[in-house]
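Exercise 7. Given the components listed, write out the predicted structure of the assembled complex. Treat all entries as one system.
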Amino acid sequence: MGIRLIIAYIFMGGAIFFAIVTTIGLIRFPDVYTRIHASAVVLTISAVMLSFGVAIYVWEFYLSIKIMFVGLIFLITNPLATHAIARASYRRKIACPEVRSVDDYSKYLGRDRE
Amino acid sequence: MIILKYLLVIFLVTTAYLAISFKEELVSIIFLSIFSIILTTLYLIHNAPDVALAEAVIGAGLNTAIFMTVISQVREGKKSMFREDD
Amino acid sequence: MSKAKHIFVVIVLSLLGITMVINLNKIPGNTDQINFIYSHITNNAVLETGSLNFVTAILYDYRAYDSLGESTIIFGAVSGIVLLLSRKTLPVSSHGLSFIVKRTFGMLTPFIFLFSLYIISHGHLSPGGGFQGGVILGAISIIFSIVYGSEFDFKRYSPTTKTLLETGGALLFIGLGLAGIIFGGYFLENLRFLNTEIGSLLSAGSIPLINTVIGFKIGAGLAIIFYSMIQKTFKEEDKL
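Answer.
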């Protein structure tokens, strides 16, 4: 077992750890915003680390490049989906309190629609 | 590998049961999508990547989009009909 | 649902799971239970069709008539759905999502298109084929409708274009079959004019052509189904 496989297993183990943290966060956090916070930040790290680990494990040029592209797509689309979910649940007023001390997002809502 | 196979089948039955046991339609659609992803993994383990690709694209992607659209259309249609009647 | 119904559903689903496991385990592997067709295909399919992917070789060469039937079924489904839904007045979310989602999908959509073309054109070399790539092509239209609003989808990828792609794909498929009669003697015979080295992109006779035709046909058909569900039938000012 060479040094390359050890590095790959370290990356995959880190990915599994972050995925478990994501699951615990999804179960334990109270409402939708904190839950998507857990899934956005930690799950993106997990997917990217998993793709790194698999690319090192395979270690063949074109195949590794393809797997890294999968990781890149994860890195772009996962925060995008989180943004869409957060915006939709803010617009539908899901789990929002009646009186808010800070509400900066409301004046940005209608900006990009003309 | 054999443990993973039976674990995935157990998850498959669980998600199929959860998909029909909720009143809310959106939850059922999300569980159907999870069902398709688990079925994709099972096909891939049994050396059928063609069927796995078709199942992933159709079951997890297209079916979810079409079901979501239909449900949103039905609800909005009811609401707008009430609005027009008023 | 009542309690007895729940228990009944669980029992039925568990029996289905058990039968699925038994049947999947009974599929013959590479070593045992070699019958005539299995050995014939594994020995001769690469030489006879030139396709490295045996599933594509069976679907679009040995049993291409079945694929013609399947695409006819999809054609009939699209016609029926358009006939049923096209006169309803349904409202639609025609504004699309936020600025960030629009710009990010502006970056990502060309790569999705490239990926679908890759799956279609490499159908005889790697897993995939016309049907799977065509569904991804249809998903691009769905992305246009959801992210940018259905008006953008109407302008960029109009229903006339979709209808042309769908019917043109069906006609080209039947035309390939008739060309098989003229040049080879059988309906949907493999026309052997793309015969470079086995394993390269332009090999396998008429399989890449059938893949391309089926891909564009399926993609346009699914886009027509989705578009007829969210058809735009009202003024934009009514929504806000």
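Discussion: The two ends of chain B are 62 Å apart (CA to CA). Chain B touches chain C at residues 5-6, 9-10, 12-13, 16-17, 20-21, 42, 46, 49-50, 52-54, 57-58, 61-62, 65-66, 69-70, 72-73, 76-77, 80 (CB under 8 Å).
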